[in-house]
Design goal:
Number of domains: 2
Family: Belongs to the bacterial solute-binding protein 7 family.
Number of helices: 15
Strand content: 15-25%
Protein name: TRAP-type C4-dicarboxylate transport system, substrate-binding protein
CATH topology of the largest domain: D-Maltodextrin-Binding Protein, domain 2
Strand order of the largest sheet: 7-6-8-5-9-11
Distance between the termini: 43 Å
Keywords: Signal, Transport
Helix content: 40-55%
Order of helices and strands: HHHEHEHEHHHEEEHEHEHEEHHEHH
Pfam family, one: DctP
InterPro entries: DctP_fam, TRAP_DctP_sf
Shape: globular
């Protein structure tokens, strides 16, 4: 708990200082490279190039597992010419800060959850729409990693922000942890639900009848503990790692969403990569698709067992099809709002995904 209970001021100061140092390091790296170009070739080829990889999650998380496996493969494929530095959650600030640092080029690679990116790129909010993805994990994996319409629409939108979409993957079911039993939209009456800051996600829970509250990830535990919020939604591994189960009584599988994250890169940096490094990056991203899918399933299963062991009186339930249908009906206006917000491109993307996932209205 010590990590979570540290003062926000101290954590912010550390992350701000780290970000500043990275900006300074980026400047001096560029200057050093310019100077080094005038030196004899054998004197400058010994130093590896650093790729900075930022995470939205803590050490030991699924994103950290991804980053470590990615680092190992890149460094092996480039025979040490590339050194991947991993920055866990909090080191560089909140998720929004990480995306900004990637767009600026201070960080070359980053995880970026679609809920966070949705504030910057409206089309990305398609993944906040309830009951869009299928219940077939293999099908979801295939579509998220390779659907041409998905990468066309979202890829172009990200390029406009000097970002490049490398891949998307699921971190598992979004599970509600609450202090009250929720089985029907009416149970959300006067219920304060912590939600991600994507506008359509907020609208969804408001339509359910809840009072949505947007808070940084680092503040969720204390908000639950102090009853500032009555519940929250996250994948199982996050619920265990951040110990949200300690301060809630119910875990509810609503089937509403999967937690979808992306790997993004600085677009200008990506375009400047030498051909061999770009090839290593692309092949590693492809290899990681199956690896992270298997790790995600194993990690969520393992950490659910940990929760059961640590809190045996935790009530766990899955909504039945009739209960899910009630929530899906309540949230229908969000689909139309997404189309209004994103226009023809957003509509094309949504319809393509509904067809691919077989989850249309």
């Amino acid at each position: 708990m010590e990590k979570k209970q540290r003062s926000r001021r101290g954590r912010f100061s550390l992350s701000t200082l780290t970000s500043l140092l990275l900006v300074i390091a980026s400047y001096f790296t560029s200057t050093t490279v310019l100077f080094a170009s005038t030196l004899p070739k054998h004197d400058v080829e010994k130093e590896p190039t650093t790729w900075r990889f930022g995470l939205e999650e803590i050490e030991g998380s699924l994103q950290h597992i991804y980053a470590k496996a990615f680092k190992k493969r890149i460094e092996e494929k480039t025979q040490g010419a590339i050194d991947v530095d991993i920055y866990s959650y909090g080191t560089l600030g909140e998720s929004e800060d990480l995306t900004n640092l990637t767009a600026q080029g201070t960080v070359q690679l980053a995880h970026a959850s679609t809920g966070i990116l949705g504030k910057r790129i409206p089309e990305m909010q398609v993944f906040t729409l309830p009951y869009l993805l299928s219940h077939d994990g293999q099908r979801n994996k295939r579509i998220l990693s390779s659907n041409s319409t998905l990468y066309g629409v979202l890829g172009n939108a990200l390029i406009d922000q000097n970002l490049r979409l490398l891949t998307l993957y699921s971190e598992g079911d979004m599970v509600w942890t609450t202090n009250e039993l929720i089985r029907h939209p009416r149970d959300f009456d006067a219920f304060k639900m912590r939600v991600m800051s994507a506008p359509l996600n907020i609208d969804t829970f408001r339509l359910y009848g809840a009072d949505p509250v947007s808070l940084p990830y680092s503040e969720i535990y204390s908000a639950l503990q102090s009853y500032r919020v009555d519940g929250q939604s996250n994948p199982i591994f996050a619920i265990e790692e951040m110990r949200f189960y300690e301060v809630t009584d119910y875990m509810i599988w609503s089937g509403q969403q999967k937690f979808i994250t992306s790997i993004i890169a600085n677009q200008a940096w990506y375009l400047r990569l030498p051909a061999d490094q770009k090839k290593a990056l692309r092949s590693t991203i492809t290899e990681m698709t199956d690896i992270i899918h298997e790790r995600q399933e194993a990690l969520n299963h393992s950490q659910l067992n940990t929760i059961k062991r640590e809190k045996p009186d935790m009530v766990m339930l899955t909504l039945n099809s009739q209960q899910k249908r009630a929530f899906k009906q309540r949230a229908k206006p969000v689909r139309e709002k997404y189309i209004e917000m994103t226009g023809k491109q957003g509509k094309r993307l949504l319809e393509a995904l509904e067809k691919a996932f077989d989850t249309g209205p």
